[in-house]
Amino acid sequence: MIPAAFDYVRASSLAQAIDLLRDDPDGTKLLAGGHTLLPALKLRLASPELLIDIGGIAELKGIEISETGIRIGALTTHAELFASEPLHGELPIFRQAASLIADPQVRNRGTIGGSLANADPAADWPAVVVALQAEIEIVGPNGHRSVAARDFFTDIFSTVLEPDEILVSVHIPRPRTGMHFIYRKIRHPASGFAVVAIAVGVRLQGGAVDQISIGVTGAANHAFTGQHASDFLLGKTLSRDNIDKAATLLSETTECLSDRYASAEYRANLIRVETRRALLALSS
Amino acid sequence: MNDTTAIRHIGQPLRRREDFKFLAGKGRYVDDVRLPGMLHMAVLRSPHAHAKIRSVDLSAAKVAPGVRLVLSGKALVGKIGPIAPNWVIPGSKVPFRPVVATDCVRFVGECVALVVAETLAEAYDAVGMIEVEYDVLPAVIDEEVAIREGAPQLHDNAPDNITTIYKVRGGDYQNAAREADHVIGLRVVNNRLIPTCMETRAIVASPEPDGTLTVYIGSQVPHMHRRWIAETVGIPEHQLRVVAPDIGGGFGAKMHLYPEDLLCPYLARELDAPVKWWESRSESHQSTSHGRAHTENIEVAFRNDGKILGLKVETLGNVGAYLSNMASGGPTVNTINFGTGTYKIDNYEAISRVVVTNTVPVDAYRGYGRPEGAYIAERAIDAVARYLKLDQVEVRRKNFVQPAEFPYRPYGSMGVMYDSGNYQGLLDKALAAFDYDGRRSECEALRGSGIYRGIGVAAYTHMCGMAPSRRLAMSGFDRGGWESARVSIDSSGRATIYSGSMSQGQGHITSLSQIAADVLQIPIEDIDIVQGDTRQVQAGHGTFNSRSMAVGGSSVHVSSQRIVAKAKKIAAGMLEVDEKDVSYSAGAFSVPGTDVAPVTFPKVARMAYVGHKLPDGVAPGLDETVFYDPTGMGAPSGIHLAYVEVDPETGIVDILDYVAVDDVGTLINPRLAAGQIHGGVVQGIAQALYEEVSYDPDNGQLLTGSLLDYAVPRAEHVPNIRSHFQETPSPTNPIGVKGIGESGSIAAPPCMVHAVLDALSPFGIKHLDMPLTPPRVWAAIQQARTGASR
Amino acid sequence: MPEPDNRHVVTVEINGARKTVAVEARRLLVHLIREDLGLTGTHVGCDTSQCGACTVEIDGQAIKSCTVLAVMADGASITTIEGLTDTGAELSPVQAAFHEHHALQCGFCTPGMVMSVRQLLRDQPNPSEHDIRHGLAGNICRCTGYHNIVRAVESLASKGYQS
């Protein structure tokens, strides 16, 4: 219940934070909302020497909506993503997904950047940013770089982030008119994390699928994009039959996790069922 | 003259008198106790389920900052312990249980060493510096595996890992099976649970300047803890004061003797300083007793018309690595004695084996044995209905014990007697409240459109308030069945009641006041209740087994009556009339039919203490203590009904409605009674749908080590509970109450399982084991669809 | 390993009073509240941010104080359960509704539950039963089965409660 001792520094700028990280990347952890890190420290599953609190860094904050797209600072909390009316106007999936993350108190502190950088295989935002075809902005000793969300997650709790890099923001291309997203989640009853969750976006043009994007979390080692299913549906109508085929394709092409609570078969089934339900909702 | 109860509090839905402090954040729990110079203990726990301890290196921990003492188990040999069970079924083999392991660890979480430091953080830091070398041994966690030949053996004195064998028999089951039209068998598992009081365990032991020791502990049984700690640590009992402050839930888990309960008193005396231990939640999952963990094999013999002729039960009760406090009694007396439930089954044969495994000790948890017993009866009768394709309600009605048969001894039992009841009345009330016929039609109609709804029914009865004392000896229960109450009237006529019962949230301050106020006929505000301090409360057994109102409440009632009786003598003297002409009502002693001016209760109280004018033979004071030992036990009963919908594609169970009709005898406070039902039912729903302790069968690692894995339900996981009552007063005590605390958690598990099985009946699914998680329900549907199901 | 006496000075406004304390970096906010400031109405019921017994308000938002470092709260305004009954006599509306509807038994989860209900009704003044149950997902109660807590919240909403 009490972490091992560590030092604490509140960074005032990204440059300072990166400098501190470079000194001892392995013994240092970044602290934002703390809702993943602190439970791990309390259970002494990790014992860093230094925590860098990046909570005060202005460049990591805010939701900006421009002509070209939407920028969400890494420190934006789940509650802020839920509450933002401008964001809701552009992409209602944020409110929908945020409302299914953990609980109100956790949503008041937990951040999107923390969730993405931690890369819990059952976290919510990874599926959303994958489906939104977002770019993840990263800063490190060599400056800024940008990685497609679909390439950001590499394994369980693993991303392309180097130990001395910081996730700065998420950039989402302005959705094209007529593009609609939906988020469906089956929650683990204890943790509230996804057993499986699906983010799906579809644009219909003349009755056929003109644009489609699928992000899946909870099912495998990390969030991924349902490319086969998307390719299959592109140009087709969202008929019951096409939807069933696409959902089955996504389910069958996923190597699902198995754990004490849910078997791989069950997760594969949830992918099929939830994808179908999402597409059915988007078809009407 | 007869007294009249002019002001009646029993039966009133009063709001709780104790609420304010809790709502204001002024509750005082053990972790809120802070004493000057207080030190903190932390415990190193075994990471292995079964291992020999080769060496323990304390050297680094001893020199860590703030550390005052570091000990391994060897240092305590011959000083404190062993931890002995308090309920030992005759013939049991009791394994030796040291307070801290010395040579061998037998479950993940067993104490291996401890640190006392100036702060809790320092104690945790130093625990991390203790080095232990283990030789890992094969572990066994499952009760069915543990009794097989070649299974790892835990204790030399318990061959085949069996500590206790207990049998119950009535009539002739074999003959019943021969005469029956059908005999079917089923195997049911009662999943292992973690009681999960929101306040974890904690203890502070503080040496006092006068040489005594005060122990603050979240205890359901303060006087029992005083006896156990005194005997096991070697402290004269009268020099030990046990204080149980506010308790954040107990549910049975806070009535046992744990290693930490002994370590803090011992260390406080060694170090001559207050020593505190507080249990973190994840620690609690491996250090506080678990519940249930049974496997039952059942055979039921019945006629074509659904009448059950005989029942045969084989229970395996997994009690973890040692016999904890009551552990030999739960799977035996408390379970198979009640295996026939509310049904008249004359031919009954049951055997229970108590099995040790490499897991956290299992002990009492809300209902203790009775949920398992009711589950036997209910799953059996539901299986009969399903087999014969008869209505689940009608089969129950056909087999119920009839109202005229009470008091009823099932299967001719000498040990079990149901004092009173009316199961038909409960059923009729429940069916009407639930709209059973309407819902039944609805289920049938919706099935055509692929909507799977089901109705679950469960009936239960059990016995509360184990008593009388002399009967408990036969079952090896080393305590009495009485409860004590002292009613002390001060010179202003106000009452302080010292009760041996111990509230952990039930609301005793309110309910015991209601009982006393009816007899004393004084305003409820003029009554204070004191519990949980062995220096103030004369004696007691505490709160468990739904006994507080039936036994503790009766003791308050009887001692209040004695107060009135004595006050009446004094009043007669003051009024200068014969005692038999005095009547007491509404706080005044009067002589009906005369113009003698009444004398009030406060005036009589003042007279009792000034003693100026007391009748001959009447001593001063108005203060009565009663040790009330009941003549028998009350048997609550009830019918619960659940309505569910199962999503066949995800396996998710949605609870649409839940109706509980319970007969707990006289209701002291309907508002508080309903609260007990709500909470108990939700704990039962939790067992049925959500909660299950998991161990890795290969190495005995605890897989549900925190609340991230162990699914205690939140508000969104459970429905509203529609609670109704029927009142059949118990003839076994003067206020007619039976006991209520355990009802919900007994009835809800079978009720929920039956509802889901009913919903899944179109798939031909006949059996599911709890918890009915979505993955499990979905897998059963898949299996049924692919025809793999037998 | 860092020096344990490497302390940080934290200043908070708690229930309207300004307090300054020197703490280790690893000090949790809940321990600052309970141990350093002696406000024991805020409880610790788990170690994985599940149970909500430690819920307090920081700058008007309900948070789990076991999952915030004391140093992170430097400069914050904190309200604990004790802050709702400052005068010590009168219960606030949420507390009174809990009393009225028997929405508490052992009382251990109650302070955190009350703080969460305040947040819930700020966010949704007219919640459905589903909204209430979903909105209390961050708090575990083991005694009441939630039934009467939901009733208490419904009654507050029907009376137009504003925190």
- Count of DSSP strands of chain C: 5
Q: Rg of chain B from C-alpha positions? A: 28 Å
What CATH architecture label of the largest domain in chain B applies?
Answer: 2-Layer Sandwich
- How many angstroms separate the termini of chain C? 45 Å
How far apart lie the N and C ends of chain B?
A: 72 Å
CATH architecture of the largest domain in chain C: Roll
Structural class of chain B: alpha+beta
Shape of chain C: globular
Oligomeric organization of the protein chains:
heterotrimer
CATH class of the largest domain in chain B: Alpha Beta
Question: What would you say this structure looks like, in words?
Answer:
The complex is a heterotrimer of chains A (284), B (790) and C (163). By secondary structure, chain A is of the alpha+beta class. Chain A has three domains: 7-53, Uridine Diphospho-n-acetylenolpyruvylglucosamine Reductase, domain 2 (2-Layer Sandwich); 58-173, 2-Layer Sandwich (Uridine Diphospho-n-acetylenolpyruvylglucosamine Reductase, domain 3); 179-283, CO dehydrogenase flavoprotein, C-terminal domain (Enolase-like, domain 1, 2-Layer Sandwich), CATH 3.30.390.50. Chain A contains twelve helices and 14 strands. In chain A, strands 4-5-10-6-7 form a five-stranded antiparallel sheet. Chain A has a four-stranded antiparallel sheet with strand order 11-12-13-14. A three-stranded parallel sheet of chain A has the order 1-3-2, covered by helices on one side. Chain A is globular, with a radius of gyration of 19 Å. The termini of chain A are far apart. The mean pLDDT of chain A is 97. Chain B is of the alpha+beta class and 790 residues long. Chain B folds into three domains: 19-26 and 482-628, Aldehyde oxidase/xanthine dehydrogenase, molybdopterin binding domain (Aldehyde Oxidoreductase, domain 4, 2-Layer Sandwich); 33-137 and 199-248 and 253-287, Aldehyde Oxidoreductase, domain 3 (Alpha-Beta Complex), CATH 3.90.1170.50; 365-465 and 634-785, Aldehyde oxidase/xanthine dehydrogenase, molybdopterin binding domain (Aldehyde Oxidoreductase, domain 4, 2-Layer Sandwich). Chain B has a seven-stranded mixed sheet, with helices on both faces. A five-stranded mixed sheet of chain B has the order 7-15-14-13-8, with helices on both faces. In chain B, β18, α15 and β19 (527-530) form a beta-alpha-beta unit. In chain B, α15 packs parallel to α16. Chain B is globular, with a radius of gyration of 28 Å. The termini of chain B are far apart. With 163 residues, chain C is an alpha+beta fold. Chain C folds into two domains: 7-81, Beta-grasp domain (Ubiquitin-like (UB roll), Roll), CATH 3.10.20.30; 89-158, Orthogonal Bundle (DNA polymerase, domain 1), CATH 1.10.150. Chain C has five helices and five strands, in the order ββαβββαααα. Chain C has a five-stranded mixed sheet with strand order 2-1-5-3-4, with helices on both faces. In chain C, α2 packs across α5 (147-158). The N and C termini of chain C lie far apart (45 Å). Chains B and C meet through α1 and α18 of B and α2, α3, α4 and α5 of C.
